[in-house]
Amino acid sequence: MKPLSRKLIHINIILLSFALVLVWSCGGDSEEIISPPETKIGEFIDENTYKVFPTNTDNFGVAEFRLWVPETSQALKAVVVLVHSYNSNGLGFANSTYWQEFAKKENVALLAANLTISNSSSVSYTDARRGSGKALLFSLEQLAEKIGQPYVNDLPILMRGYSAGGVFSNSFSDFQPERLLGFANIRGGGLHLTSEKNIRIPAMMFFGEFDAVERNNRIVETIAIKRKLGANWSLIIEPGLDHFGSLDKAEDMIQFFFSKVLEHRLEGSGGQLREIKEADGWLGDNVRLEAYSFDNYPYDITKASWLIDEEFSSKWLDFQAQ
Fold first, then answer.
1. Cα separation of 273 and 251, whole Å?
2. Global pTM value
3. Measured in whole angstroms, how far is the alpha carbon of residue 118 from the centre of its chain?
4. How many distinct structural domains can be found in the chain?
5. What is the average pLDDT across 224-229?
6. What is the CATH number of the domain that holds 244?
7. CB atoms within 10 A of CB 80
8. For residue 115, what is the enclosing H or E element?
9. How far apart are CA 98 and CA 80, in angstroms?
10. Does residue 27 form part of some domain?
11. pLDDT digits (tens, 9 = 90+) for 53-84
């Protein structure tokens, strides 16, 4: 066989180089084609409102959250989350003068929620452990970044919920106990069983005197279970009200309670949470309408409401005596 000429060798080298370029180029195009599209988790509705898209496993149909922060040169202390009744849009709470004044006074942010049930899930959004709680935290992160104050995402949370919103607040205390300063449940009776992780979180549950018996019984039972474990939880009765009665007095009581929780649980300006021992509080009897310091309580402490301090215990007594 005759050896290849230099000219043929040169031509072969050029052809081989061209083939390699084609292979490399096609390989690059192929890789781009098979790359999966980026999944969009949510979107901004406006500058202060974020919406999370539900997945097939999430327990909500709609999850929208609106953030409001007071104008201040000081670092904020906490985020107050406001969740309203079943399938109702509570975004307007972020624009409420009543809650904005509280936020200015206590130097906290407001996060209002619009949550509805999912048509594809048998679990209600009221169980924060099944998707709705994660949606809240993700939205807070996005909104904090949007307003240029990312530290707001790391602040501890106070949570106020009415009816289904109160049920959500109860389950959130089990979902993220390390984030929760305290919570209040107004007449939310469909309560989930929770672990012992939340017993040191100050909590207050309201029930209307003339609300449905089944709903009130569930609230009373939940408090009783927790109090047997020494939980920092209290029951408060709303005289003369049913499930849909005025919330005004309850809201005033909650704001007073939240102020007390901020006072007793926050350490310094870094947002560290102080644990309150059961024996550090007061105890109240809902039937006799009496309150005593922990060491001086004359009745069964497991059947008493836990009260955060003496001043709050006086307010607790006055509220139920109305």
1. 24
2. 0.87
3. 18
4. 1
5. 97
6. 3.40.50.1820
7. 25
8. strand 109-116
9. 13
10. no
11. 999 999 999 999 999 999 998 999 999 999 99
